[in-house]
Amino acid sequence: MLRLLKPNAIILHKTRPQVGQEIQACIGCNECILACPAVAEPITIDMLNRETISGPISEPVARFARACYQCGACVSPCPVGLHRDAMMLWLKVRLLSMVEEE
Amino acid sequence: MKRMNDKKGYPWFFLDMGRPLTRTWTTTLLICMLAIISFIIYNRVGTDLSPDSPAGYTYAIVGTIFMLLATFGYTRIRRTRQRKIGQLNNSLNWHICFGTAAIVILLIHSFGNFNPRSGTYALYGMIALVISGFIGRIIDRLVPRQITKEVRKALTEQGDDRIENISRNVQDIVAYNTQNLRAFKTDAAPGPAGLPQTRLVASNPTSLGGSTLPSSWDIAYLTLDETPQEVSRNNQQYRFVPDRKSSLARPGALVPGYNQQIEELQLVQHALQREQYYRALIRYWRIFHVLLVLTTIGLTIWHLVYAGQLLLPVLFHH
């Protein structure tokens, strides 16, 4: 129970090149998605990685990005120490940019 | 006006009503409706409208079961190693469902009896817990969008670090202007007609013997030059302002925009501070919610012990 009281470390956002590097380093083990309390429908990690960095964003990924509340639960299970929350934030920035472009 | 699209983009208010969410909310409504209807019926039929009536105990037991399900169901799934994608989200939905049902049933269990006893404190704890949960959900919905807005300010269109960009611009401005200032030469314009051009001649103090004296030969010597302590070069009035006719006054000789870049830098720094604050708000609200859980569990145990002390002698007596 006491572990619940320990907050996850606050890490500020990452730039697009850094996000790109992290996505390249992702081994696709799905641990981050399994640990995520925001993901409500089956999403493959390949799809998420591909759509995070560039290109069109599909509806399930957009829904997941909107639902992500940056709790950081995805960071600690990653076996290669990546920051999925920072990647999701970049996806959110892309979504927000899409709104303002319209 | 910017259009907010529900399908695309990132609107302020969005509700992705998937099947799991619909199922849990329908269940919550059904449980609450059942509890309220049974309360209305019991209110008309029953005579003993108190928390320690048989109906009161039933509500207490059912409410406590829902409370325990809400507390430990989600924690159990969180700790399970073998889980499917989306299972945690589903479990979170059930956590909200059971929490809401528990507060409704426990409110009915009180029968409007809010005497300052252990049960009332446990109920207040439960109310605070549920309210904090709902506020937490609102924070989880709205604050991440705010974080995204702040991050957009801190990044360029291409997603690079804006602070780095600004620093590079400032360096370029400073380097260019410094170079131009060093290359600056006074125009050898002739003085007014008939007047000799004034020239500053450096004083050359010499001794009677003709040798040069050091500037501080006398301990009472005071330099008339401005010392760095007297003039702050950063003060606006001491900044170099080229003459109108000077070559530095022509357009492009000194690159403007230093102040704008610094202002932009401050905006980005504020955005970063706000990002950090919003992230902390999300994390620490969760801790506050967990602390309320612990408090409510403690108050409920106190209430159960109190109720047990009243009940057990009666049961053993019969």
From TrEMBL, chain A:
PROSITE patterns in alphabetical order: 4FE4S_FER_1, 4FE4S_FER_2
TM segment ranges: none
UniProt feature coiled coil, ranges: none
InterPro entries: 4Fe4S_Fe-S-bd, 4Fe4S_Fe_S_CS
Ranges for domain 4Fe-4S ferredoxin-type: 15-46, 58-81
Any one Gene Ontology molecular-function term assigned to this protein's record: iron-sulfur cluster binding
Cross-referenced Pfam families: Fer4_10
Record keywords: Iron, Iron-sulfur, Metal-binding
Protein name from the UniProt record: 4Fe-4S ferredoxin-type domain-containing protein
Taxonomic placement: Bacteria, Bacillati, Chloroflexota, Ktedonobacteria, Ktedonobacterales
Automatic annotation (TrEMBL), chain B:
Keyword Transmembrane: yes
Keyword set, alphabetical order: Membrane, Transmembrane, Transmembrane helix
Membrane-crossing residue ranges in chain numbering: 21-42, 54-72, 92-109, 121-139, 284-305
Designated name of the protein: Uncharacterized protein
Organism: Dictyobacter arantiisoli
Organismal lineage: Bacteria, Bacillati, Chloroflexota, Ktedonobacteria, Ktedonobacterales
